[in-house]
Amino acid sequence: MKIAVVAANGKAGQLIVKEAVERGLDVTAIVRSANKTVAQNVLVKDTFDLTADDLRGFDVVVDALGAWGPNASDIYKATEHLTAVLKGTDTRLIVVGGAGSLYVDDTHTKTVLDMAVGFPEEAMAVVKAHAHALAGLREVRDVKWTYVSPAAEFEADGARTGEYQIGGDQMLLNAEGKSVISYADYAIAVVDEAESGAHVQQRISVVSK
């Protein structure tokens, strides 16, 4: 299996690359600057400059682009660009998503974003950008996309336990009643989805056990 990880130098991207390489997959890191990953192959190119030729031949492309504050809109703009490039192909697109659009009630009327009070403006911009990306994907019919939401608490330096639970549009809680997952366990979930292709044109969510 051939996988490309876009924005592979980010915290999530590096761990997704590492997980995929350790499983023996053929991984290409797509980065804007010097490669910081363990990928066997590297393409130095800005996300928004990627073309159909650049991504031809990959089984899966992972959109791991993150942004902050005034640049938060790059999150959904990157997803829009990649869906445009991959439209009509068999290459699957897996998007590293956000938790803000997860529902917090059984009636699916309130989301994490709806309940957010006192969030810094810069953080709110990121949450809204992720939600925008998902809303856009839900309108796409000619790309084999999957959007993977982490838990509400996404721990960059959390331990790799090797275990996680998978859900859908509603926020899950672990055995301790918390919505939390480490970047390392999230990377496992992303690569599992890359290998299985079990949730095409769906949003899934993951939480620790």
From TrEMBL:
Task: Enumerate the SUPFAM superfamilies for this protein.
Answer: NAD(P)-binding Rossmann-fold domains
Q: Which sequence ranges are marked TM in the entry?
A: none
Q: Which GO terms describe its molecular function?
A: oxidoreductase activity, acting on the CH-NH group of donors, NAD or NADP as acceptor
Which InterPro entries does the protein's record reference?
NAD(P)-bd_dom, NAD(P)-bd_dom_sf, Polyketide_Oxido-like
Gene3D superfamilies linked: NAD(P)-binding Rossmann-like Domain
Q: Which residues form the NAD(P)-binding domain?
A: 8-192
The protein, known as: NADH-flavin reductase
Species this protein is from: Alloscardovia macacae
